[in-house]
Write a structure and sequence with these properties.
Elements: E1 2-15, E2 18-24, E3 26-33, E4 40-47, H1 52-60, E5 65-71, E6 79-91, E7 94-105, H2 107-120, H3 125-137, H4 144-157
Helix pairs in contact: 2-3
Amino acid sequence: MKTFKLYSLCILEGSEGSIKQRPVPLKDGLIINMENEEHTWHIDAVMEESFKGYFEEIKQESGHLLVDAIITSKNNHPATMVTNVVTITDLSDGISVLLEAKLVLQKDEVIEDVIEDLVEEGLSGEQLVQEFKSRKENLAAHSENTLAEVYASLKESGNYQLK
């Protein structure tokens, strides 16, 4: 197992063909790569109690959430994961939500999407290189199209009940 600090967590919700990003202000958090055959991750996010009802509803419905997790530093690229709520624990100052997660989108896939977008925009040569460098530096969030495609694909698979 490998354990990392959870820097940020953002819930990705589908709405009328687009993705709404809902940041979850964290008080603290860890993300653990279980390094098992199922490629499971665990996310333990400590947050305000105001999120309790939202996560309880997901848990009761045996639903899933698509999330972007940034590990260790704001400079890292987000990892998009499909999750389910395992436990919700009351704390003296907020709640702890344990999510079981599977990685569904990695940095390399996002970079490929950026290049495809640039080519579709008709860029080439030095202009393409410069624009790629600029966008690569700003990959703190995935493109709206990439997230919408991932969300739709997961929902259509029938394996997940996404919020």
